[in-house]
Here is the input.
Amino acid sequence: MKIGIVCYPTFGGSGVVATELGKALADHGHQVHFVTYNQPARLDFFSENLYYHEVAVSKYPLFEYPPYELALASRLVDVVRFEKLDILHVHYAIPHASAAFMAKQILLTYGIYIPVVTTLHGTDITLVGKDRTYSPVVTFSINKSDGVTAVSEHLKQDTYEFFDIENEIRVIPNFVDLSRFSLKAKDHFKKAIAPSGEKILIHTSNFRKVKHTLDVIRIFAEVVKEIPSKLLMVGDGEQRSECEQLARDLDISDNVRFLGKQDAIEEILSVSDLFLMPSQSESFGLAALEAMACKVPVVSSNAGGLPELNVNGVTGYLKDIGDIEGMAESAIHILEDEERLATFKENALKRAKEFDLSIILPKYENYYLEVIEKSKAVL
Ligand code: GMT
Here is the structure.
C-alpha cells in the first residue's frame, strides 16, 4: 500500500506511535509518506520506502494566526495526487482529521477518493476536544473519517460519551518494538547512579500538569524513607522546575536526578526497578509500556486506559489518582522483597509482549485494507 501519515512530529506519545508505525510499515514493504511541519523526532534514518513532505506555512503580516490547517490540507492534496496514495492515516483529531477532510473534498474535484483513517490518542479527546471551542469540529471530523481507531477501550467509551459519534471506533492499542525496548546490560551506568546498590525508580514524561509529576516526587519522598533508593526524572516541560524545588523542600534532592530529554530511553529503563506514572489522565500510557518491555514494573494511577495495560497486583499496582500514600506503599511492597520484585519484573515483560509491534502492526494493515475495500463499495 501507499500510505500517507500525518502526525505531530514531536516526542509526544501520538507522534512516537505514528512515526514508529510508519517505520514498521515501510519495513514491511509499504510506501510511507509522512506529511508534517517538521521531520518527526524518531524519523532519524533513511529507508527506500520512507518519504517526508514538509508543510510550510506562509507567514504574511496579515495572518495573525498562520493557517497551518489550510497549508496541511493543500500539501495533502498534492501528495495524494502525485504520489498516488491509497490511504491517509491521521493521528490526532485536531487539526489533522479536519485538514484531511478538507483535502478529501478537494481531491474529489480531481476524481480521486482518498479514504481517511483517524487515530484518537487521548489528549485530543479528553483535554482539547472536550473544550467547547473545538467540539463541533472534532465531532464532524470523526464522523466524516472512513475509519476511526482509539488507543484504548476507555478512550473509545469517552469519545462516545462526550461527542455525538455515529462511526464505529476500532480499538488498536499502543505497541512497543521489543527488539529495541528490552533489558540491556548497563551495569556501569547502574553503579554510577546507585553506587551502594540502591533501588532505582524512574518517571519519564513531558512534565505537563496532567502527568502529576509533583506526585512522583512526593511518592518518592515516602519510598526513600523506607528503601535506600534513587529517582530518575527523564524529560522536560512546564512542571520541571516546580519538581526540582519540591525535591529541595523535601530534602531529597541528593537522591533525585533530573536527566532532561533523552533518546536512548531503553538504556535508562534497563537500570530501573520501578516506573511511576501517577497521571491525572492517560488514554493508554505508552511510557509505561516501554518500561514494562524493559522488565520494569509500574505503579500508576487507575486513570483512563492504564488498567488495560497495568494489571493490578501482577505487573505493578493501580491506585486512585492523587493517592500518594497508596502509591508509595505499593512501591515499597514491590521493592522491599527481592523475590517479589523479580516476579513483578517477569510479569511486566510478559504483559508487554502482548503489545509487541509484531502483534499490533497487522491490526493496522488489516484495518487499512478493510477501510479501502469499504470505500470502494461507496464509490
Ligand atoms: O501523554 C503525552 O504527554 C502525549 C500524548 C499525546 O497526545 O501525544 O500521549 C497520548 O497518546 C499516547 C499514544 O497513543 C498515549 O500512550 C498517552 O497515554 C496519551 N496521553 C494522555 O492521554 C495524557
